[in-house]
Request: fold
Amino acid sequence: MCGIIGYIGPEEPVSLVLEALSRLEYRGYDSAGVAYFDREAKVDVVRASGKLSNLAALCQGRAGLPGPAIGHIRWATHGAPTEENAHPHRSGPIVVVHNGIIENDRELRKSLSSEGFSFSSETDTEVVAHLVHRHYRTTGSLPEAVRLALREIAGSYALAVLCEERPGELVGVRRGAPLLLGEGENAYFLASDVPAFLKWTRKMMPLPPDVIAAIGPDGLALLPVDGSPPLVPLFEEVPWDPVAAEKGHYRHFMEKEIFEGPRAIMDTLEGRIAPGHGRVMLSELARLGPSPPELVFVACGTSYHAALLGRQFIESLSDIPVRVEIASEFRYRPLRIRKGAWVVGITQSGETADTLGALDHARREGYLTLAVTNVPGSSITREASATLLTRAGPEIGVASTKAFVAQITAVWLLALHLARRTALREEEGSKKALEILLKSPARLEGFLGALDLGTIDGLAEKVAASRFVIFIGRGLDYPLAIEGALKLKEITYRPADGYPGGELKHGPIALIEPGVLVVAPLVDPDLSAKEWSNIREVEARGGTVLTIASPETAPVLPAYPLPATEGWEGVFFATAILQLLSYRTAVLMGNDVDQPRNLAKSVTVE
Ligand code: AGP
Reply:
C-alpha cells in the first residue's frame, strides 16, 4: 500500500527514482511523484495522477543534481487519486513522502491551520510536511525537526524527508509501515521493499521502528526517537537475484511467476531435509520447542488458502488439532485456544496489517508465534517468535502465484516436521509424503513444459463468456477452488465464488442457469468420487462444468487433463492450471494483469 523511495548518492536522481518506483508499482498505482534538486539547486516536485508512466512522461528531459531525491507511488486512502493528493507534499523547504495513515490528521489540520499553515491537498500526509517545517524553523536541524514532529503524530508511517536548505541530507523513519535501508557505493537508499534498490545493491537492513535514519555528509546515523544512544547499522546481503525482479521475455510478471513455481518449491526445500536421513529438519523452529497441543493459522487472501491446505496436511500426518482463521476477524476476538498453542501467520509480504495484528494479539497473550513469509527482514520476521521463510524470490505481480506455491511447500514441510515429533506419526505416510514433495519441483517443471496452452485458451474463452463462475472442491480441492475464484476476481473482475462441493446443494445450486460456469479442480484422491456427484448435480440442471483432473480422479475426460498424480502432488498441477486460466482470461479481456484495479500487493492498512 503505497511505496516510497529515498536516494542519496552520485547517480542522476530523476531516472533512478523513476526506475526504483517501477519496482514498487505493485504497491499502488493511483498516482506517483518525485522530488529532487534541479540544476539551480532548488527542489523540483513533479507529480501525476494515474500510473507511473504518466509521471515518467512529465519527467522527460528533466535531470537533477546528484544528491537526495524521494519518490512515491500511491494507493489512495485519504483523498481521491488526483494530482493535488499525489506525494511528495511540500511545506516551505520541507518535502515528504509517506506510506501509512496519520490517525490524528483532523486535529492536526485544525491546529496547523490556526497557526497559518495552508493545505493544498486532502491527504493526511500534508500535516507531516507542515509539522516538520514548523519544527525545522525553530531547530534548523532536519533529523531533530522530524523527531519532534513524530511526537505529535499518531498512526502508522514510513517517511522519507528532504529539505531544500540541506542539499546533502536525507531522513527516513518508520512505525507500523515498512522501510528498508540499502547501502550502495557511496550511496544510501530508503525503500518500502527490496526490489526498489536491488539493481544497485543487495546490502539491506530493515529500519527498526522509531529510529531516525539520518543520512548526511558524514554518512548514516541511526538515532532512536526516544533520545537513547545511536544504533550501529548492520547490513545483510539479500539472497535475491536482481534479475528475479525483471520480467525477462515474459509479457507479464504474473506469467513469469507462474512458471517460476518449480523453482519456488525447490528453493523452499533447500537445506531443510536432513542429508541421508530423509527427514525434514526445520531448525528455524527450534525456538518454539516441542510440538504444540494446537496450532492456529492466521492469514488473509491467498495466504489463508495456503493455511487451509496446511490444516489438511498437518491433521493427516499428526494428532495436532489445527484451526485456520481470517486474520482480520481473529485479531478482535478473545483468544480461546489451548495453552502452549502456536499461532502461525502466513503472509507473502510479511507486512499485511491484519496478519501482523493477529500475531500481535496472540503474542500479547503469551502464545508462541511463527511467521511463514517470503520477505526476509519484513515486519513479521521481527515480531514473531520464529520465522520459516518461503523462498519464492520477489513476487511483483499483484495476484499471488509462485508465493502461493512456496507457501504450500512450507506448510507441507511443517506437517512433516510435526509428524516426526508426535506419537501418532505414521512413519510410512510421512515417508511417502516427503518422497512426493521432493519430486514435485521436477514433476511440476515437466508439467509446465508440456502445457497445452490451446486447451487453456479454449477454457479461458468460456470463462470470459460467462456471467458468473462458481468454483467447487472438496478436501484438498476446496482451498484450490476458493483460490481459483479469488485469482479470477482479482484480474478479470468477473463475478466468481468458491464453495465446498458439498455445500452447493444447500443454496448456491440455485444460481445454476445458462451463462453460469462451474470450475472443479479434482486432485483430492480421497474425495474426488464425492465431488463427481456434485458435478453431476450441476450437469443435471443444465450447468456447464470445467474439470481439472488426473486419470485416477476423472471417470470421463476432464476439460484439462492432469498427468497421473501421487498423494498431494496434484495440488501443484491444479494450482498452475487455475492460475493460468485466470491469467489467460484476463489477457483475452485486455486487462492490466499485473496491476489490477483497486488492489495493492501489500495491504498495510486495516
Ligand atoms: C493474492 O492474489 C492477493 N493479492 C491477496 O489476497 C493477498 O494474498 C493477501 O492480501 C495477503 O497478502 P500477504 O500474503 O502478503 O499477507
